[in-house]
Amino acid sequence: MTSLAEFKQAPHKLLVIPGPIEVADEVLYANAHPSMSHVSPDFVPVFGDCLRMTRHVVSARRAPLSNFASEKSSCPRKVAANLVQPGENALVLHSGYFGDSFTECLETYGAKVDQLKAEIGAAVSQEAIESALKAKKYRIVTFTHVDTSTAVLSDAKAIAATVKRVSPDTLVILDGVCSVASEELRMDAWGIDVVLTASQKGLGVPPGLSILVASPKAIKVFESRTAPVGSYYASWKKWLPIMRAYESGKPAYFATPPVNLIYAYHASLTTITKKAPLLEERFQLHRAASQQIKDTAAALGLKQLALNPAFAATGMTALYFPAGVTAADVLPKLGAKGIIAAGGLHAAIKDTYFRIGHMGITAVDETRGDIQRVTTALNEVFAAK
Length: 385
What we know:
By secondary structure, the protein is α/β, with parallel strands linked by helices. The protein is 39% helix and 15% strand. It folds into 2 domains: 115 residues, Alpha-Beta Complex (Aspartate Aminotransferase, domain 1), CATH 3.90.1150; 248 residues, Aspartate Aminotransferase, domain 2 (3-Layer(aba) Sandwich), CATH 3.40.640.10. The strands form 4 sheets. Strands 2-10-9-8-5-3-4 form a 7-stranded mixed beta sheet, sandwiched between helices. Strands 11-14-13 form a 3-stranded antiparallel beta sheet, with helices on one face. The model has no long low-confidence stretch (mean pLDDT 95).
């Protein structure tokens, strides 16, 4: 069998869409682990370590529930099924496509949902949030920390502070699929009750893992519900004993976890939490990489979707095409230079812009030269336009 020292992934174009992202050799190698029993003595401590390291990444030492299973779209379902009873009110802060998808999920489980919509390129203001919370009692407030469709960053710390001040019983739910491990996040210190994320973006693992961390406050709300949980597979009643068992070093069974992906996740988390650059420096490196991309775009006359720097994510950038230019004029040319970027996603403007991801090893491993490759390709493609 090939050793890790010998293993190199196949040559390929540089993947800089906003997820999936480039994956390190050691993570792909771990994903190729021999098939294992999910209750074997070898696997149990790997699973337990992942639970502990996940909490470290989101700065949530007090969180009693870390949970991961297959498929990213199960994240909103876990919130809708466990924390909101039919007929209860939910407030969704909308900064792009994923505000709509969270709304649809909540409504499917019987919640009464109100949206606060920001203009494209902006996040919802604290004044609008405060006004909505004073007008109605909400069980939860949800927001997308970085909306992948717009590259808009919402101020998680400020949102949580506003909710805590105006409506302290309301739970704060952060969709961190496109932010965890690339944007600064302090779950405990900021008062976030649930963080949802997935494996294929800043965490640097192949797609397939849905990850959730819940606070003690969120668990109490779950335990006090009077209506039955509206999902069998997503029920925390099923998963809490499983996670507690694995973290204590004991096997347990409800459903088979994606064992090989968890080995890959363990490899990536070990790098993020225990090796240089450590988490705080990773945030700084993401900011530096982001600035390089954004400065290059600005020099080329490319306008960001983000209306001002306060709304601009550090893990990705969304850029309008110049007048008369389309995705067909740009994305294939970037592809010919070995760079895979993404087209638009927001339905109202999807043909007018494109997106570049700069998360994970692309941002933090400067020896790879990924950011330089992207900026060089942007200059070559756009300089003549």
